[in-house]
Amino acid sequence: MKLTKNPQVPNEYWQAIVANDPSYDHTFLYGVRTTGIFCRPSCKARVPNIENVRIFKNAKLAQFENFRPCKRCKPDGLRQPDEEWMEQMIEWIDQHYKERVTLNRLAEISHGSPSHLQRTFKRVKGMSPLKYIQQVRISQAIHDLETTDRSVTDIGIAVGLPNIAYFVTLFKEKTGSSPSDYRNNHQQKQSKEGHNHELYER
């Protein structure tokens, strides 16, 4: 693996992270800036980019820097509460819903197994991760239909649903009407309300 210089990460520690070496578990912990999670060197999570790695002597220092303990390797025996874990996932989905989001990708980012993430998300949030992602995408599509003149195709692509046939089907399933019908109905409603407001002002 190509090494990128990071003065905060000694080469010896980096090699331990890459090799998932348990002999270093009581020597240091490492945090990943892009996920906000810290792990043992032996953690089986995907090897991060070295530029994003922070080294910590112990869990307290990592937590002081607002890093959260990994759900997979539980550094120093710490366990992130499920509710906090799910809020972290919600925040990530809200920021990345336009991308291709799968259960495996969510599990990789959160350092948990796909099945455990699925069960915990459903228990805490009352729906599966997929359902939540769909909800976020459709909510954004509704906002775009109401506030822009972008085409249905462009809106579908913008919210992470580039298969337009699927976008239309999902939108109708969630709202009861197609995107085009929804926009037309909204415009008619706005026009009627504007007309009524004008009559009232007279």
From TrEMBL:
It comes from the Bacteria. Residues 176-202 are annotated as: Disordered. Keywords: Activator, DNA damage, DNA repair, DNA-binding, Metal-binding, Methyltransferase, Transcription, Transcription regulation, Transferase, Zinc. Its cofactor is Zn(2+). Gene3D superfamilies: DNA Methylphosphotriester Repair Domain (3.40.10.10), Homeodomain-like (1.10.10.60). Signal peptide: none annotated. Residues 87-185 form the HTH araC/xylS-type domain. InterPro entries: Ada-like_dom_sf (IPR035451), Ada_DNA_repair_Zn-bd (IPR004026), Homeodomain-like_sf (IPR009057), HTH_AraC (IPR018060), HTH_AraC-typ_CS (IPR018062), Me-P-triester_DNA_alkyl-Trfase (IPR016220). The keyword Electron transport does not apply. Residues 176-188 have a biased composition (Polar residues). Residues 190-202 have a biased composition (Basic and acidic residues). Pfam families: Ada_Zn_binding, HTH_18. The keyword Transferase applies. This is Bifunctional transcriptional activator/DNA repair enzyme AdaA. It comes from Halobacillus amylolyticus.
